[in-house]
Structures are given as C-alpha cells and as structure tokens.
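Crash report, auto-generated. Payload:
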Amino acid sequence: MTPVTYARAATIEEAVRLGAAGHRMLGGGTNLVDLMRQTIERPTALVDVTALSDTIEAIEDGGLAIGAAARNSAVAAHPLVRAEYPMLARAILSGASAQIRNMATMGGNLLQRTRCAYFYDPAGSRCNKRDPGSGCDAAGGFNRYHAVLGASEACSATHPSDMCVALAALDARIHVTGPGGARVIPMVEFHLLPGDRPDLETLLEPGEVIVSVKIPPSLAARHSTYRKVRDRASYAFALVSVAAGLVMRDDRIEDIRIAFGGVAPRPWRAFRAEDALRGGPATVEAFAAAAAAEFVDAVPLAGNGFKIALAQRTLAAVLAELAGSAR
Amino acid sequence: MAIRINGVEVAPPEDARISLLDLLREDLHLTGTKIGCNQGACGACTVLIDGERVLSCLTLAAQADGRSVTTIEGLGGADDLHPLQAAFIEHDGFQCGYCTPGQICAAEAMLREIARGMPSYVTPNLGAERIPLSRDEIRERMSGNLCRCGAHNGIIDAILQAAVEPVA
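Recovered output after restart:
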C-alpha cells in the first residue's frame, strides 16, 4: 500500500472541500482498502465519510430516503425496507457476508469496482479499466463471470453489486453534492457503459459526494423479490441475478420492474422485457418471450454463453413466483 | 481519541495504512485474531466493533478510533471459556483451529443478530418478528467464515448448543 493520510469529515461541506482537494472518499473500506493493498488504487489522502448521514426514513409524500453512510446491514434490517421494498432487503442480504454488510455503506456499494480477475492482477494482466489502452486479457481468457450485455471490445467486466440491481429496478435517485452544487442522478444513468473508456465508471464528478439515495414508493416495490444464481450457495458474486416487482390487475400485468445483475458492466434495467409484459397476461409464454426480447442483442464470450439462457430462465422463474403470489 | 480494545484504550497508529488486524497482532500481540486471506474472503480476522462483527483485515486501525473493539481474547480464555468456546470443543468445531477465533467472534454476533430479528437471505418471511434458528439459517449467516478443514457440521452443532444454553 502506498503512503496515505486519513481524515474524518464531520459535515458534507468538509467532505466536498477535501474531495475537491484530491482526497478519496472512504466508506466501510471493504473494497477501497483491498484495492489499495493490491496497489490498484493509490490515493494519497483519504476522507472517512461514515460520520455523515446514515438515517433511513420515510419521505413525507411517500418513498424512502437512505443516507449515504447507512451500513448495508442496517438498510436490509430496517422494517420499512423489509415491508415496502423486499427486493432491496433480499438483494443486500444476498451480497458478500454479514461482516462485510456490517461495514459496507450505501455510497460505497454504489461505487464499488468490478471483481474481474484481470483487473485485480496488476502484476500479470493487461486491463483497460486499470490501465487505459493497455488491452484486455479477459477477452481471450477466463471470462465465465463476464458480461453478455452492454460490453465493449475494451471491457466486458461486470458490475459486482447486488444492491445496485434492486436500486435500478426501483428507479432510485442518487443525491450528490459537489463544488458545483447539488444535483440528482437517476440510478439507471449513474453507472456508465465501458465503450472505449472503461476507466470511467460513474457520472460522479471529481469532488462530488454521494449524500443520499431516495426511492419512490410503488406497488411493484412492495410486491417484489431478488434471486441470485451463483457457483456456491452463499458468499459468492452473481453469475446472474434478477430483481423484479410485479403488480396484477384483472389478470393483466399493471406494473412490472425488472433488473439483472451479473450480465452487464452496470446494473441492467430490463426496459425491453418490461415493455413486452406491461398490460399483458402473466403467463409462462409471456415471461419467456419478454426474457428473450431483453437478450436479443446479447453477445457471448467463449466462457459465458450459458448466462444468456440462465438469465432468461431465472427471470421466468422469478416472475412465475411473483405472479403466483399476486393472484 | 483512542481505540478501546478489550476494555483497554490504545492510541491509533500514526501510519494510516496499518489495518486493525495488524495493530492487534503486530503491535498489541493479540494473536488470537488470525490473518488468513488478508482480502476479505475468509473471515479468519473477524472481530467485533461496537458489538458488531467486522473484518479487521479490511478495517484501517484509524477507522476504529473512538470505537470499542472486542477480540477473541476479550470473549473468553482458557480459565473462563465463553459458552461458544466450550461448545466448539465439545462438538469438534475445528481441527487445525486457525479459523476458530473468527468463527466464534462471528457466531457470538450472529446469535445476537437473530435474537433482534435480523433476517438473512434464506429467511422465508422478511416480516417475521422471530426467526427460528435452523441449520440453514446458521449456514447462510456463517458463510463469511471459511473452514478449510471442513469442520462446518461441528461448528453448526456447537452454535446450536450455545444458542439454547445462553450465558448464565
């Protein structure tokens, strides 16, 4: 690890000031401290932002506001999250381990970086995300865990978060503040696709601090779940995951929310599948057709073609479960 | 400010790079806490901060400033075994013993999480106020602590016993 200084921000303003001066924001440290030890991240100054808002509370006109410093386990345990946004509780609980969820913050989870093994191997592998322009060893290498949607020639690394998949499905909004003032970024736009600049991962500008995440209320959020498929039963990153919410009315799908994890460089909101299903019947055939529509442009690599069928089947199974309990 | 470790106040290190794990082992010689993967994958370094289980390898010591840390040495010792330590011995919850301090710290916090109604990924009903302690619940909740000897069944037996025989 290269030498680094440590400071704590007592206010958002202090965090913004230090961020503008080049300090890196430190949440729980579960990702950043690891990346620093591997010398993949080499900040010279850290500002600990875990003393900033960690409140989780209902918004007056509906919805939920979660402070950026709220720990993942606190969010999953919150009665409002469990009752009104079960996909979010289940997504968080499916991620990492209890120890890591106790440490990890809302803001840190949003900003965590890929677990691509080549990204994590500075001594032995080329990686366009770590070292732009150097090449990508995943393309011709072990790419079982890589993306089938939204990838580029430069990078096919997946976004690792479970929580973010639920936030994408729930139309969350990320409230940030920085040297240029405060602004709100829709979750579905927050993470960037790699294109030819996979080193650029979010819309966050230098010095900007995540303040809170707000989630609008919806019936689809209340009737929702999250399913994760992985190589072992627990404590593993997703091969494929699905966050979905479903509302039925007179045997028709009134509202539907779908997002995938493990298949793309960002949490993948499945607008095509949603459009195919909204207003139609909740049948096995409709679920399969909608899933196929979402993956029509999928591009498999040598090792990850199985994800295309796996993701479609997982979606169909999750929707069948939700439709069954909606009747 | 200071870090309170098993009730004793310790000054945080000057070098911000020092992890809580290295502070415990190298500076304070509290070697019960083990260094396994040093990258958050194995759970051997699990300790409690303000009563909650965390990984000391991914915690900078500076982050623990002003907080209270409990290690395996703070839970029990040879002359005053913690009920979980006694249960691990009774049920062969280890072979080499290297992951054991982390397992016991994690289990101690886990039983309190269940008692206050914290759900897990395998909890069927997220709204349940009381969550029954099952082998599946323990497996899921302890998945952050690996045992390369494969003593997991003994570990689950030990935790189940300690859960029904709380500290007097």
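Post-recovery validation: The first helix of chain B runs from residue 20 to 27.
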